[in-house]
Amino acid sequence: MPPRLSPTVRQQRLGIELRRMRERVGVTPKNLAATLGTDLPKISQMENGKSGISAERLRIWARTCDCADGPYLDALLAMTQDRRKYWWDGYRGRIPNGIIDIAEMEHHAESLTILHTSFIPGLLQTSAYASAVFARLRPPLPRHEADVRTAFRIQRQQILVDRPKPYTAFIHESALRMQFGGPVVLREQLESLLQDSERPGVEIHAIPFSLDTFPGSGESLYLACGPVPELDTVQIDLSQGPKFVHAEADLQTYREIKTETEAIALGPAESRDFIRTILKDLAGRS
Question: Which residues are in the HTH cro/C1-type domain (predicted)?
Answer without folding.
Answer: 18-73
